[in-house]
């Protein structure tokens, strides 16, 4: 599972292996950085290349991307939206499923509270993945948290689907 | 010159040939459409393919894209930002220069007023390109207006740069 915390200046990417009910393992984590002194189109191409390279290398079953809201921080929201669009296209044009999770879904999944702060999310990611040190910066931890969320929610979703199928509701 | 009015549901593309001080000619115009019933990643891939195909076909010297603001219509702004990011990447990864123009710059360039309405912009595009009928829908006219704006402003910008160079200010 590849989790992506999209951003124009820092784009977190985290790969987590595992399944519901089994311990999860961090495969790799990275933060793509682009410089604000470069034109936006060039920065977006850098992000495209970085995401493409990771999809090639890790061949994820799915890509989980943070859902961006129009009401987020106005100064960065456009760049974040553009970076998330690029990440979606990188996955979708290879036929890899894309899932979007809101920040509060991610916080709730890893910490039990949709209002958890960054430190709490980082602490839980470190614990869940049994890391020897907290992943840094926060974008790296967020990307791993997205991957964890998708594995856990995906599992729950699949069980609900299976139950509905069995009950003849689908 | 390829002008792109980005959007997730309708993405206008207009190709205009010409230079400052010469009559401009419309080469082609099209509106890419994607269905709201499809997942966003799939819609963005459709836009990527459409923009790529036009860049391949018309080999523009530059691509002019409408600048999207975070304070625009909240319900569509994220999709518009994502579509504009895709259009930027399509051009930038081929090394084609990308220019962003605000809606008011475009209105001012084609109509003389930054507050012109859609009907006025369409009327002026029809006149400037000597078309027998107004381009429809508005996204098509907007894309052509972007291409016209970039040709005219690009020319002015080049003349200013040249004058500054001559005056030893650069």
List key phrases describing it.
globular, homodimer, 5 helices, Nucleotidyltransferase, domain 5, five-stranded mixed sheet, 170 residues, 5 strands, alpha/beta
Q: Can you describe what's shown?
A:
Two copies of one chain form a homodimer. Chain A has 170 residues and is α/β, with parallel strands linked by helices. Chain A has one domain (2-166): Ribonuclease H-like superfamily/Ribonuclease H (Nucleotidyltransferase, domain 5), CATH 3.30.420.10. Helices cover 51% and strands 17% of the residues of chain A. Chain A is built from five helices and five strands. The first copy, chain A, has helices spanning 40-58, 74-92, 103-111, 118-128, 138-166, and strands at residues 2-5, 10-17, 25-33, 63-66, 98-101. Chain A has a five-stranded mixed beta sheet with strand order 3-2-1-4-5. Chain A is globular and about 50 Å long. The two termini of chain A are 27 Å apart. The relative contact order of chain A is 0.20. The model of chain A has no long low-confidence stretch (mean pLDDT 91). The interface between A and B is medium-sized, with 28 and 28 residues. Chains A, B: The active site is at residues 5, 66, 139. Chains A, B: Its EC number is 3.1.21.10.
Task: Indicate the overall shape of chain A.
Answer: globular
- Find the CATH superfamily of chain A: Ribonuclease H-like superfamily/Ribonuclease H
**DSSP helical segment count of chain A:** 5
What is the CATH class designation of chain A? Alpha Beta
CATH fold annotation of chain A: Nucleotidyltransferase, domain 5
Model regions low in confidence, pLDDT < 50 over at least 5 residues of chain A: none
> What assembly state would you assign to the polypeptide chains in this entry?
homodimer
Number of domains of chain A: 1
Distance between the termini of chain A: 27 Å
Q: Mind telling me the C-alpha Rg of chain A?
A: 16 Å
Protein name (chains A, B): Crossover junction endodeoxyribonuclease RuvC
Cofactor (chains A, B): Mg(2+)
Organism (chains A, B): Nocardioides daedukensis
Pfam families (chains A, B): RuvC (PF02075)
């Amino acid at each position: 599972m590849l989790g992506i915390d999209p951003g124009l200046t820092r784009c977190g990417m985290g790969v987590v292996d595992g399944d519901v009910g089994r311990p999860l393992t961090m495969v790799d984590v990275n933060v793509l950085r682009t410089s604000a002194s470069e034109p936006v189109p060039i920065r977006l191409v850098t992000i495209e290349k970085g995401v493409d390279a990771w999809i090639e290398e890790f061949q994820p079953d799915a890509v989980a991307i943070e859902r961006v809201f129009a009401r987020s921080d106005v100064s960065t929201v456009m760049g974040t939206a553009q970076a998330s669009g690029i990440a979606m296209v990188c996955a979708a044009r290879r036929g890899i499923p894309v899932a979007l999770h809101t920040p509060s879904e991610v916080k709730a999944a890893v910490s039990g509270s949709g209002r958890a702060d960054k430190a709490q999310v980082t602490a839980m990611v470190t614990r869940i993945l049994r890391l020897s040190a907290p992943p840094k910066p926060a974008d790296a931890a967020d990307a791993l948290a997205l991957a964890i969320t998708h594995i856990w929610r995906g599992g729950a979703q699949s069980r609900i689907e299976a139950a509905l199928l069995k009950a003849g509701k689908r």
